[in-house]
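> example.struct
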């Protein structure tokens, strides 16, 4: 719904601000309390911090967010400035991907503080809203994830509950064979899963990755640059895929779920029957480094696989991990950045925008107005370049 439609719907007189956009009076009359909460969480502010910055009490902010009262028109502009959103962001009537934070699987749950999880969940809500806006113009790949209630391609297909069995079944369902999986993230996107990188945020440096199947499309958020190691990153992507497959209907946070997602990822990336004949009978790190390059998993993961499959004792594996630690940074034992692997970088939303731009004339400003975001936020989530000319100073 456009801003004009919203103003017409609520019948607010004098609904335009002098500089364009809805007037503070119009926004106050059609104020959506959930949008205030979303914007506050995205800004990483507590109710008390927001209250101090706009000059009201924390109790008043709480009342705005519960819908008990609405902010006065004169507060609308200040709220928008503090939260870095257009005033129209607070208007009701737009699709809102509301997500209960307790329904998201966080890769590093214990290390992630509650406000960081809340901020990450608000980010996923925006990702869904952007996806929804693009999907109105472009047919995205159908969701082909057995067990996902939002729209399976094959509703009769079910995967086993056992992690390794589920991993093998999904490989078969996606026709991936039994060898190495190249371009894992691209396969996930091709089967309708939304995969995104969050914008750089020092305030959320403990948020490794997370996923949810409780929106109309499954969403996986991967932090590509936290460790800048494509092999660890791929395992994390497979781990989150395991959550989507195994734990869509259960509450997150159980350590058993994390172990199951790890077991799924290990079998999905390195199927037992395929990797076992290739693993060395002793802790040969050079041999494991060669296998890492073929199978796209870390040496750590392969060592764990050796121990898990009975090729190494616990003590032998422990000694191998110590040797590997000493070799970190040496040639052949350094991490490789995700940026070197285009097939592991999400492209679905960016390509959907490019297609809509070519076919329908969609622009970032049109999309921003529809979402009631600043254009810079659209560029940020789509990975579009900043159109402003760069000023370069010669010292």
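> example.seq
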């Amino acid at each position: 719904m456009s801003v004009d439609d919203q103003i017409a719907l609520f019948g607010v007189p004098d609904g335009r601000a002098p500089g364009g956009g809805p007037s503070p009076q119009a926004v106050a009359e059609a104020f959506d309390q959930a949008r205030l909460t979303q914007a506050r969480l995205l800004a990483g502010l507590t109710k008390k911090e927001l209250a101090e910055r706009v000059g009201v009490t924390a109790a008043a902010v709480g009342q705005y967010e519960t819908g008990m009262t609405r902010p006065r028109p004169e507060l609308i502009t200040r709220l928008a400035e503090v939260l870095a959103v257009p005033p129209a962001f607070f208007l009701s009537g737009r699709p809102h991907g509301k997500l209960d934070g307790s329904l998201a699987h966080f890769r590093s749950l214990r290390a992630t503080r509650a406000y960081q999880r809340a901020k990450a969940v608000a980010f996923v809500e925006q990702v869904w809203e952007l996806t929804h806006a693009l999907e109105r113009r472009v047919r995205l790949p159908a969701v082909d994830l057995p067990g996902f209630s939002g729209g399976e391609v094959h509703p009769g297909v079910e995967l086993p509950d056992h992690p390794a069995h589920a991993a093998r079944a999904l490989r078969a369902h996606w026709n991936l064979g039994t060898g190495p999986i190249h371009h894992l993230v691209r396969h996930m996107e091709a089967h309708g899963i939304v995969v995104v990188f969050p914008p750089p945020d020092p305030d959320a440096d403990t948020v490794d990755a997370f996923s949810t199947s409780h929106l109309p499309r499954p969403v996986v958020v991967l932090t590509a640059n936290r460790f800048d190691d494509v092999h660890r990153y791929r395992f994390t992507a497979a781990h989150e895929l395991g959550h989507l497959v195994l734990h869509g209907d259960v509450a997150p946070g159980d350590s058993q779920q994390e172990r199951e997602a790890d077991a799924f990822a290990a079998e999905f990336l390195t199927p037992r029957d395929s990797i076992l004949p290739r693993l060395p009978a002793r802790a040969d790190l050079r041999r494991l480094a060669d296998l890492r390059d073929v199978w796209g998993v870390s040496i750590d993961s392969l060592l764990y696989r050796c121990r898990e499959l009975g090729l190494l004792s616990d003590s032998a594996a422990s000694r191998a991990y110590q040797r590997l630690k000493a070799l970190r940074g040496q040639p052949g034992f350094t991490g490789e950045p995700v940026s070197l692997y285009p097939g592991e970088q999400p492209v679905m939303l960016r390509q959907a925008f490019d297609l809509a731009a070519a076919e329908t004339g969609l622009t970032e400003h049109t999309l921003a107005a529809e979402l009631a975001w600043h254009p810079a936020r659209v560029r940020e989530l789509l990975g579009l370049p900043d159109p402003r000319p760069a000023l370069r100073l010669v010292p």
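> remarks
The chain has 18 helices and four strands.
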